Amino acid sequence: MTKVNQTPEIYPDYVGVTIPVDIAPLNFAMADDAFATIDVEVKGTKGGSIHANGDYADFDVDEWHQLLKQNKGGALTFAVCAKKDGQWTGYQEFTVNVSDEPLEAWGITYRRIPPSYEMYSKMGLYQRNLSNFDEEALLVNTQTPNQCLNCHTANRTNPDQFVFHVRGNHGATAIGKNGIELLKAKNDSLGGSMVYPYWHPGGRYCAFSTNKTSQMFHTNMKNKRIEVYDSSSDVFVYDTETHTVLGDTIIMKKYWAENTPAFSPDGKWLYFTTAKRQIYPTDYDKEKYSLCRISFDEKTGKLGEQVDTLQSAESTGKSYTWPRPSYDGRYLMYTQTDFGYFSIWHPEADLWLLDLQTGETRPMTEVNSERTESWHNWNVNSRWFLFTSRRENGLYTQIYLSMLDKQGQATKPFLLPQRDPKRYYRELLYSFNTPDFTSKPVDYDSYQTAMKLSGKERVATKFQ
């Protein structure tokens, strides 16, 4: 066997990452397909070891979790040997850190959708157990039938309260709260559907935006294929108890487009983005969103009368979207792009982190790549976060996880583990959309939900 003084090139790249103690096994293969066999021995700095041998490293789930628990707060060392053209090569060991910060999540939810543009095609809402590789469909659009399913959104990772939207001629907004209630897809006073939801922590209110969305194709930009923009949009708060839309506020301006709302963890602020409307589609690249907030009174259900601008598009020349506050109230993570808000089609889109205590903001260079980063969410204790990235091939968004340490620095992100990751990601012709952590499995009857969606019963919303 030949020994080399370098770490192995593996797929996925798990070299030097930090993982929670309850994550699924980090199975991997050699990046070079010419390697026929891989042999891996994993040892813990606090004791214990496991072994895998085959065409890829496939670790036993129970043995993996026992080793992680034994080495919580420590590290694992991976010794890799691989066989190519009948010759074995031994590589320098690499480490994976096992954090003592709990994940506090059973799993994640997400939408899987093919990169189609004009047709809905097959898509679905799914949940995945993070401690193993079990995935379950919550609802697929072949059940609805063939309508567009917008993403599942829970209240602070608790699936006892959730919302998702079904777009189409027979659409609805589904509110999961002591059963499932279907709202009329559109309110004529709003002029659009209820999309991009975010729950108030108290559970009574949910913020939405209503968007008249269009898309166009680029013909002279090699790194961009499609542009999504809104001819109009507004942000509002919905009262789930009275079925009332709390509208006609100062953030519903006639010549401005408000978007992507999110409540603060104490429920006292509503973050959102706003841009001056342009002439579409010719001036689409002049649409730049500022990041703002406005106070909210849970007792009266009313927004304040003054808007605070946290990041000014006019000052920076950039556009801001998808504000997501950490649940401990310390940080606000958002996406910065050159223009617009639909960042998944923007390769320049990066994650930024605003310290709400100091007011300082910075690019998250620890996790950003040369391609799109966006659609991020926090776990309930605000130490772990996930996001989607197109870093691998520029075509499909995949889910990555990272941890924020006590100094506010993120660890090297790692790709969502799969049992046979190289085969899985090569054969999967779907993108992952708006992932989020879930504290426990989403428990509802998919068949009954689909039957209810096919019926005519809808609850009308009132505009206040």
Write the layout of secondary structure elements.
Layout: E1 2-3, E2 10-11, E3 18-19, E4 29-30, E5 35-44, E6 49-54, H1 61-70, E7 75-84, E8 87-90, E9 94-98, E10 107-113, E11 124-129, E12 135-140, E13 148-149, E14 153-155, E15 158-167, E16 172-177, E17 180-184, E18 186-187, E19 192-193, E20 195-199, E21 205-217, E22 226-239, E23 244-246, E24 256-263, E25 269-276, E26 290-297, E27 302-311, H2 313-316, E28 319-325, E29 331-337, E30 350-355, E31 361-363, E32 373-378, E33 384-389, E34 398-403, E35 414-415, H3 421-427, E36 431-438, H4 446-454, E37 462-463
Parallel strand pairs: 1-8, 3-9, 23-37
Antiparallel strand pairs: 2-4, 5-6, 5-7, 7-8, 7-9, 10-11, 10-36, 11-12, 13-15, 14-15, 15-16, 16-17, 18-19, 20-21, 21-22, 22-23, 24-25, 25-26, 26-27, 28-29, 29-30, 30-31, 32-33, 33-34, 34-35
Structure description:
A hairpin with a 4-residue loop joins β15 (158-167) and β16 (172-177). The radius of gyration is 23 Å and the shape is globular. The N and C termini lie far apart (75 Å). It is mainly β and 464 residues long. The longest helix is centred in the N-terminal third of the chain and has 10 residues, at 61-70.
